[in-house]
């Protein structure tokens, strides 16, 4: 029996900047640990992990066998992400890395994740795609890929993304891998503040 009031993870200190978010995603059963005592906050999120969490947030609606057949690499013997990927693909939240492959174990970058959040919130849940905000306050805005420009503009406008400060400049870090601690923070902001 899981005690949802107590965080069981040895690697999430009381004073960690991500503790509240980890507690939130754990209590709401959006994310679990990598073991009974570890959360692995610095561990990378994969494409399969991210869509699985959004699928849980959305209520884990049943998917059909036809929807599960969308990619050749998600149907191995019962992976945890099969239904989530099928749901996300059929709702236009994700696309494959090719016509037949999703690459569920590939590490997701921050800009890939923000694009997925954008498609989930705006496409799936009909949120306003706020625009008009420029990204030029961020020192690395030129590093944001074309496909993620609108998503980052929306994410900054809604407060989903704040950017990080380094040496007096603000950065989006679009090509950095999304770690589990940052994913927990984005998920909590998405559910509590954005949606």
Briefly characterize the structure:
The chain has helices spanning about 20-25, 45-55, 65-70, 80-90, 110-125, 150-160, 180-195, and strands spanning about 165, 170. With about 200 residues, it is mainly alpha-helical. Strands 1-2 form a two-stranded antiparallel ribbon.
Task: Describe the protein in words.
Helix 1 packs across helix 7 (180-194), helix 2 crosses helix 4 (82-90) and helix 2 (47-57) runs parallel beside helix 5 (110-124). The chain has seven helices and two strands. The protein is mainly alpha-helical and 195 residues long. A two-stranded antiparallel ribbon has the order 1-2. The longest helix is centred in the middle third of the chain and has 15 residues, at 110-124. The two termini are 31 Å apart.
What portion of residues is helical? 25-40%
- From the spread of the alpha carbons, the general shape counts as globular
Instruction: Name the helix and strand elements from N-terminus to C-terminus, one letter apiece.
Output: HHHHHHEEH
Strand order of the largest sheet: 1-2
Largest sheet: 2 strands, antiparallel
- The total of helices stands at 7
Strand content: under 5%
Cα radius of gyration in angstroms: 17 Å
Taking the alpha carbons of the first and last residues, their distance comes to 31 Å
Number of strands: 2
What is the structural class?
A: mainly alpha
Low-confidence stretches: none
The overall average pLDDT, rounded, is: 90
């Amino acid at each position: 029996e899981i005690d949802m009031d107590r965080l069981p993870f040895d690697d999430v200190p009381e004073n960690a900047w991500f503790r509240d978010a980890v507690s939130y995603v754990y209590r709401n059963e959006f994310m679990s640990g990598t073991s009974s005592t570890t959360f692995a906050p610095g561990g990378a999120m994969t494409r399969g992990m991210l869509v699985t969490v959004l699928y849980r947030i959305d209520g884990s609606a049943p998917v059909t066998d036809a929807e599960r057949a969308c990619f050749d690499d998600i149907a191995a013997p019962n992976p945890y992400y099969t239904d989530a990927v099928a749901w996300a693909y059929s709702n236009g939240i994700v696309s494959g890395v090719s016509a037949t492959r999703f690459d569920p174990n590939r590490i997701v970058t921050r800009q890939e994740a923000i694009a997925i959040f954008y498609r989930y919130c705006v496409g799936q849940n009909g949120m306003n795609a706020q625009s008009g905000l420029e990204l030029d306050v961020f020192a690395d805005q030129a590093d944001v890929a074309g496909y993620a420009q609108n998503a980052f503009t929306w994410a900054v406008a809604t407060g989903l993304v704040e950017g990080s400060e380094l040496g007096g400049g603000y950065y989006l870090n679009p090509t950095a891998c999304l770690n589990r601690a940052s994913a927990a923070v984005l998920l909590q902001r998405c559910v509590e503040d954005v949606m």
